[in-house]
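Complex record, two chains
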Amino acid sequence: MKTLAAAFLAMALSLPAFACTTMAPPPGFARLDPNDDYAWRATSAEGVVIAVRKNKNRPAGNLEFWASAVRYELDRKGYERDAIDQVRSADGIDGRRLRYHTVRQGRPFVLWATVYVTDKKVTVVEAGGDAAHFDRVQPSVDQASRSVEAG
Amino acid sequence: MRRTIALHAWMCVLMTALAIWLIGCAAEQIRETAPTTPQQDTRPGQSTTRAKDPPQASAPAALAAGATTGAGMAAPAAPNPAPVKPSASPASPGQAKSSDGKDAPPVDLGSRPMLIYEAQVGVLVDESKLAETIEKIIDVAESAGGYLVGRTDQTVSVRVPSGRLRTALADIEPLGTVTRRSVTAQDVSDQFHDLEVRLKSLEAVRERLSQFLSRASNMSEAMTIAAQLDQVAQQIDQVKGQMQLLRTRAAYSLIQVQLQPRPRTLVADPAPQPPPKTPDPRPATLPVEWLHRVGLDSLTRLDAP
């Protein structure tokens, strides 16, 4: 019995904090099954996707560190940066929203990467898709990226 | 005694009249024999034709005009058909005078000089377009009213009306990359004026020789004059040919185009081109695997498990 309880405890501790799993998908979006990268995903019919990536804060860094790391990675991949915004999650964690655009197969695409950092976790809310469709659901995407619980 | 004196006086009058009549007959016979002389000249061409020309002036006028020859009919070999520039010796009689003894009118070249334009153009074209470019240059010339002068594999010479030289050059230059161009203008007004004066002088000499020929007293004299007429006619043809050549060259400008194959580009096009956007080189990579998967590739891969 003790062994079984220890196993359950270990499983519970190993799972990522699924606080965001309670996040409701924006209107017009359908939730997708999580995969190895994303703990939560939702997509619109036109292919605009919102997803939440939760990972351990290793190496341990603050918001500036991880925001810079994501920015550097996206810059390196050729994305064109539009702006960096200050945002706050549903549970009051300060974050950075990095807004980018790029061209894929001749069409403009938008990518937002919102980074929240606590001592234990790094939460990245990614949202992106064809710019024409993204612009129509942008308020919903904005709301969704702020509604995540990053703590 | 008085009857004897009167008889002698009448005799003198009669003798004088008889002498005058005889001289007149002799002169008439000379005139009648003269036209038969050139008909015996069997040489074809201008000498015979010119010998048949009717005299344009009376004998005294011809003699007066022939003062430069130094003699009249008695010395037909004396005239020198070689003209002398009036500008060099304006007081020289004969050469600068017309058959009626008056000064020849000045040659009117108009207020504009006679100019011969020649243009040389060097053009770089793609090697595969050499022949095509030459054809286009010929088309430009012909559409401007000109004509082809000559061509090789890499050169073409055309003539265009001088008034359309600039337009033709403007049409040719865009056919490739112009590496050099030059346009020269040669003023031949003086040269043309000299030829005109020389032509008038030669024509005056020819006219006088024709008159002398019509009055030749014997066959030998007629043959000598006819030979000189032939020489003068040849010189007139030469001068006319030179004048026509100058007119043609002044009316049609020469354009010589030297085509060269464009060297293959070994360096970047000088036109500014935005550098291709390449990912920034990263000297060090964070040991965070998930970080490298941030982006649209992972985000939009909906079929991933």
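Note: The first strand of chain B starts at residue 115 and ends at 125.
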